[in-house]
Write a structure and sequence with these properties.
The protein has 260 residues and is an alpha+beta fold. It contains 7 helices and 16 strands. Strands 11-7-8-9-13-5-2-15 form an 8-stranded antiparallel β-sheet, with no helix packed on it. Strands 1-16-14 form a 3-stranded antiparallel β-sheet, with no helix packed on it. It is globular. The protein starts with a helix and ends with a strand. 42% of the residues are buried.
């Protein structure tokens, strides 16, 4: 029970900035290595999927940000498919209103807040938003749902409210206030926004894509601690399957491209 509470504090954001920094330092230290087996057991992580044997990881953080073995997350090969960019819970698929407003867990957001630009937000009026929440048990590297080219890449926000179910319903609208990285991709069916939202009182997002192009399913970054991925698509460009709301895995089909 004590270890479970420690992991919840560490990876689900229940800490002050000072404590969070100390916990991160601990998670990155060799002293945390002894906690890896109990962490995996607590969150029922399939260690057989990890790229390395569990004893090979030098710290709890290294295990948390682990790579997976080749082939355990196949990327759907259908050229018209839209795939999940990560493991997680697809908690909402919503049509964006003409004023670019949408709701997550009863909290109202606008794309202007999320993207930091009213002009860019207008691009997505009538489009679709997908929000994927990653829990501590999930694989925490983030990929792309479509092949594309990076048009812009910037950072916003300086807060770090929780983005778990409690945070999404009880705190001050974390998706539009937390530290986040917004990447705009150009694809075969138009432009979309790929947003990684941080979730701890320290910078928790690392960008790994080299260059400005990514194939469908390619890795672009990872979270050091639990967080959220948001995808914003233009009107009529993709159709997201509402039956996919709930747990999804990287590479799994969540929708289809609309080619006119």
């Amino acid at each position: 029970m004590i270890k479970s509470r420690l992991y919840q504090t560490l990876f689900e954001l229940n800490a002050t900035p000072v404590i969070a920094k100390r916990l991160r330092a601990f998670a990155e230290s060799s002293a945390s290595r002894a906690f890896i087996p109990s962490f995996a057991k607590t969150y029922q992580i399939n260690v057989d999927e990890a790229a390395e044997p569990i004893e090979a990881y030098p710290s709890l953080h290294a295990f948390f940000t682990r790579h997976l073995k080749d082939g355990v997350r196949p990327i759907d090969a259908n050229p018209n498919s839209v795939v999940s960019p990560c493991d997680g819970k697809l908690s909402i698929v919503a049509d964006i209103t003409d004023d670019s407003r949408f709701e997550v867990k009863g909290q109202s957001y606008t794309l202007a807040e999320l993207l930091g630009s009213q002009q860019e937000a207008r691009r997505y009026a009538g489009g679709t938003v997908c929000v994927l929440y990653l829990s501590p048990r999930d694989y925490h590297r983030v990929h792309v749902p479509l092949a594309g080219r990076v048009l812009s890449h910037y950072e916003l926000g300086d807060r770090s409210a929780p983005v778990n179910d409690i945070g999404l319903t009880k705190t001050v609208r974390p998706l539009s206030r937390n530290y986040r990285r917004v990447t705009r991709f150009e694809t075969a069916v138009g432009v979309y926004e790929h947003i990684m939202v941080g979730a701890l009182n320290v910078n928790t997002i690392e960008w790994t894509l080299e260059g400005d192009r990514a194939g469908k399913g390619d890795e672009v970054g990872y979270f050091s601690f639990g967080s959220t991925v948001i995808l914003c698509f233009e009107k009529g460009r993709v159709t997201i399957d509402p039956a996919k709301i709930g747990p999804v895995r990287l590479g799994e089909v969540i929708g289809t491209m609309q080619n006119g």
